[in-house]
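Team,

Forwarding the record for the chain on the shared tracking sheet. I've put the sequence and predicted structure together so nobody has to dig through attachments.
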Amino acid sequence: MPTSPPCNQNRLNCTPDQVLAATMIPACGKFVNPSNLQAEQLIFDQSFKDLINNFGIPVNYYINTFNLSAADLLYGEDFGSSTSGSSQFKGPLTGVQMYIEMSDDALNLSKFGFDPGDEFTAFVHISTFAAAASAYFDYSSVGQSIEPKAGDVIDLKVLGCDRPNGRGSVKYEITERMDQDISALNPILGHYIYRLRGKRYQSSFESGLSSELVNEQIYDNSFSGVLSTTLVDQLTSDGKTYPTVEDPYNIDNISKDDVMDMDVNDTDIYGSYY
C-alpha cells in the first residue's frame, strides 16, 4: 500500500459550502496547500513511477563511499578504504530503473568553440531508489544520506552489450542532484523524483570501479612526481605516504622542513602563514 508524503498527515474533509466560504474558513480553501492535496499527489507519484518503469532502462549504480572525515588532507584521498581493504566505490547496485536523456549538442556546439563534453540527464523515482539503495548498502556507515549524490557513477550496462570491437557500456559520474524544481519536478508541490545530471566518467583508478572497456585514456602508472622506472641509475619518486598512528605527520611541519620555513618572514599581512 503506497504511503502518503510526510507533509500530508492531516488532510481536511471540507464540504463544498465550506470551500466556497473559504474566506470564513481559510483552512478549507488554500487549493495549493500540500496538506489538502494528498490524493492528487499520490496520483502524480504513481504516474512518475509508472513512466520511469515503462520507458526507463535498468542501470548499474555505484555508490561513492568517500568519507571526508577519513580523507587524507594532503592528497584528498580516502586512504582509510585502502588500508582497511574496502573499496571507495560500492557496487554495482543492479536493476535501478532510470529514465535517461542523452546530450546530442556536443558536435554542434564544438563548431562555436564550446566543449560541452558527453553529458546525460536521468530521472529516478525517490522512494524506489531509497528502498533499493538502503537494502543494498548501509549509508550510515559512511555518514551519508540515502539518496543519489555527486560523485556516484551510473553504468548504462544495457547499452553496451552489442557495441562493436569489444567496446562496453558507458559510465557517467553524477555532478548534480535535484529534487526540487517547482516548474518541472514538483506538480502540486509534491516531491516524486530526482533529476540527475552528469558527465562522462574518467577513470582515476579508484578502487571498486573499473574503467570502460577498450579505454585509451592516457595515464601514468604509479607515483606522483617523477614517474617510476626500472632503468638503471634513473631517478624515481618515492611512493605516497599516509599518516598513521605512529607517524601522524602534519603538512605545516613537512612544509617547514622540506620546502621553506616561512617563520623567517613577516607573514602577518597574510594572516600569518602557519
